[in-house]
């Protein structure tokens, strides 16, 4: 497998990550995941924009322009002959020794960039069947809008959900649902879709942008407002969204069926619109 390591394309086993890399020591870095269908990126601009925003929010000076980054990622999927799959890319603040919390001078310490691509086909069967979820307190920090590589809060929540026998963790702060451990969260009640507004408590999902557009096209009303765990448990439908899972029905929460306990008609419609947009951008 070929990967990107700083400005080079190398074999996966040639990459050497220093033990004093600030990503390794402090989780001082940001990342993103973008998906390709039929050998073409879907919503690449939105992912790259979010990456640049995260760099700005953390005062991390990126060593490339948006265009250069897009070119490099496109080369990566071509070289690896990725048809339908995921590209993970991240940057850390580099290797600074001795270990010190203070940001190093960017003139002296260069950031470390890596990217890899993996073939991951669409799992239509899972998108029809749906997944289960468990309600877990959101104990993460207050910059959840930054796609930080520091994911301990997220993975602890996912682990709790798995221990409860569920696929995903639906997170809440004092009873208000924020998002899931690795996706945005949605519910449907009486024909209206609800999802948490953007801000510092959730990641502004790229899939969320696509689904909001899909709902508008389909004439389904959406309210970007907070809903409670109680409201979620009485919802007609629930689903989560991310680049890798698209719009994924949540059919059971804490062991109780959501609505009919099967994929609902609104998420079904959004899935169709999502696929239409994929076909428009990437062909079929
Ligand atoms: N929230 C969290 C915590 C996530 O990890 C993800 C996945 N990156 C999302 C939301 C969804 O973001 P996107 O639609 O851009 O993949």
UniProtKB/TrEMBL annotation:
The lineage of its organism: Bacteria, Bacillati, Bacillota, Bacilli, Lactobacillales. Its EC number is 2.6.1.21. Keywords: Aminotransferase, Pyridoxal phosphate, Transferase. It comes from Pisciglobus halotolerans. Homodimer. GO terms for biological process: amino acid biosynthetic process; carboxylic acid biosynthetic process; D-amino acid metabolic process. It is an enzyme of class 2 (transferase). This is D-alanine aminotransferase. One of its GO terms (cellular component) is cytosol.
């Amino acid at each position: 497998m070929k990967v990107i390591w700083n400005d080079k394309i190398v074999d996966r086993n040639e990459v050497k990550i220093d033990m004093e890399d600030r990503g390794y020591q402090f989780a001082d870095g940001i990342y993103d995941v973008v998906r390709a269908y039929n050998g073409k990126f879907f919503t690449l601009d939105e992912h790259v924009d979010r990456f640049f925003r995260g760099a700005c929010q953390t005062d991390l000076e990126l060593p490339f322009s948006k265009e250069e980054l897009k070119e490099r990622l496109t080369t990566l999927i071509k070289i690896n002959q990725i048809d339908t799959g995921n590209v993970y890319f991240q940057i850390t603040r580099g290797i600074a020794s001795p270990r010190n919390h203070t940001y190093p001078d960017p003139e002296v310490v260069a950031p470390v960039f890596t990217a890899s691509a993996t073939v991951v086909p669409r799992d239509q069967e899972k998108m029809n069947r749906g997944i289960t979820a468990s309600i877990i307190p959101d104990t993460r920090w207050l910059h959840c809008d930054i796609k930080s590589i520091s994911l301990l809060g997220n993975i602890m929540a996912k682990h709790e959900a798995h221990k409860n026998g569920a696929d995903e963790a639906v997170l809440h702060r004092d009873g208000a649902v924020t998002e899931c451990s690795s996706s945005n969260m949605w519910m449907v009640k009486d024909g209206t879709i609800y999802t948490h507004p953007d801000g510092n408590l959730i990641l502004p999902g790229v899939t969320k942008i696509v689904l909001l557009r899909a709902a508008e096209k389909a004439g389904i009303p959406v309210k970007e407002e907070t809903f409670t765990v109680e409201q979620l448990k009485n919802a007609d439908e629930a689903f989560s969204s991310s680049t890798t899972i698209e719009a994924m029905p949540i059919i059971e929460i804490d062991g109780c069926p959501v609505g009919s306990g099967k994929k609902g008609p609104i998420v079904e419609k959004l899935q169709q619109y999502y696929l239409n947009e994929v076909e428009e951008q990437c062909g079929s």
